[in-house]
């Protein structure tokens, strides 16, 4: 009887040990959280088609326009098992000259970081092809991971310096090719009480770099808590020269800052008289 009890006790202890061993084994095989242990550096495409694909060194990313001018967007994440020290983003021209650099030293987690950054293109270096390099360093300052891709400054309807004003909205306007070069273009509507279609306060500035590109900076409407402008119409100064759809119907836009960035883009399809 004592022997049987002893055997049952031994079997119980062995079962417990096997159970502990099983859980330890499972814990060792458990997949780590992304970026917490595995060293990684990913640069994402964001084109609404391939935005889950990793950028390669031969991939091109187009420039974008912002309040501070043109820039190359950089989206990605990186992780280091030893902990992140800093992340360095650099923009080089096609001759290898460093144009813009940015460092990240505050992280989403000590060992993992998601970034959404802009590398500004200096005005004197616009219209070029660039190389963008992203490098992560550990806490000891050692360079650990590095990836690169290419950027290109795409010529677009970009804001002029006169149209970039703090705490104001910049409206970018693109017009058809048959737009007369010697005529002024205006917005009107609820912004000016449906009044003058040729109000000089709301006249666009014409771009000297690109044909049929214009911009305008406007302030908060009086008493508004956001930049809600209601209906915006575009004309060359009269009802007869107003922007219309290809079918000839009135064309209007309705903007508010809760939906748009500080740069709004309008494209005229057709003029009523042309």
Architecture overview:
By secondary structure, the chain is mostly beta strands. The chain has two domains: 40-152, Immunoglobulin-like (Sandwich), CATH 2.60.40.2550; 161-271, Immunoglobulin-like (Sandwich), CATH 2.60.40. The protein is built from one helix and 18 strands. It has one helix at 2-29, and strands spanning 40-43, 60-62, 64-66, 69-79, 84-93, 98-104, 112-120, 129-138, 143-152, 169-174, 186-189, 205-206, 213-218, 230-235, 243-244, 253-255, 263-267, 270-271. The strands form five sheets. The chain has a five-stranded mixed β-sheet with strand order 2-9-8-5-6, with no helix packed on it. Strands 1, 3, 4 and 7 form a four-stranded antiparallel β-sheet that branches. The radius of gyration is 29 Å and the shape is elongated. Residues 1-36 have low confidence and may be disordered.
Task: Write a concise keyword list for the protein shown above.
274 residues; mainly beta; Immunoglobulin-like; 2 domains; 5-stranded mixed sheet; 4-stranded antiparallel sheet; 18 strands; 10% helix
């Amino acid at each position: 009887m004592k022997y049987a009890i002893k055997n049952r006790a031994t079997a119980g202890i062995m079962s417990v040990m096997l159970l502990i061993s099983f859980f330890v084994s499972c814990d060792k095989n458990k997949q780590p959280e992304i970026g917490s242990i595995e060293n990684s550096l990913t640069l994402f495409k964001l084109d609404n088609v391939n935005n889950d694909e990793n950028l390669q060194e031969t991939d091109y990313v187009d420039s974008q326009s912002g309040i501070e001018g043109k820039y190359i967007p950089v989206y990605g994440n990186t992780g280091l098992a030893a902990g992140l020290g800093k992340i360095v983003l650099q923009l080089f021209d096609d001759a290898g000259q460093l144009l813009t650099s940015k460092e990240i030293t505050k992280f989403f987690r000590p060992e993992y970081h998601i970034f959404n950054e802009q590398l500004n293109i200096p005005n004197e270096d616009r219209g070029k092809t660039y190389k963008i390099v992203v490098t992560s360093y550990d806490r000891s300052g050692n360079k650990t991971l590095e990836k690169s891709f290419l950027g290109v400054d795409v010529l677009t309807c970009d804001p002029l310096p006169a149209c970039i004003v703090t705490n104001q909205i910049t409206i970018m306007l693109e017009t058809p090719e048959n737009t007369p070069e010697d005529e002024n273009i205006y917005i009107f509507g609820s912004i000016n009480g449906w009044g003058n279609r040729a109000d000089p306060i709301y006249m666009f500035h014409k771009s000297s770099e690109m044909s049929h590109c214009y911009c305008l900076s406007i302030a908060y409407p009086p008493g508004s808590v956001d930049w809600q402008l209601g209906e915006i119409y575009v004309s060359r100064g009269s009802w007869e020269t107003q922007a219309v759809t290809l079918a000839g119907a009135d064309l209007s836009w309705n903007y508010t800052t809760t939906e748009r960035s500080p740069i709004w883009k309008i494209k005229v399809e057709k003029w009523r008289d042309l």
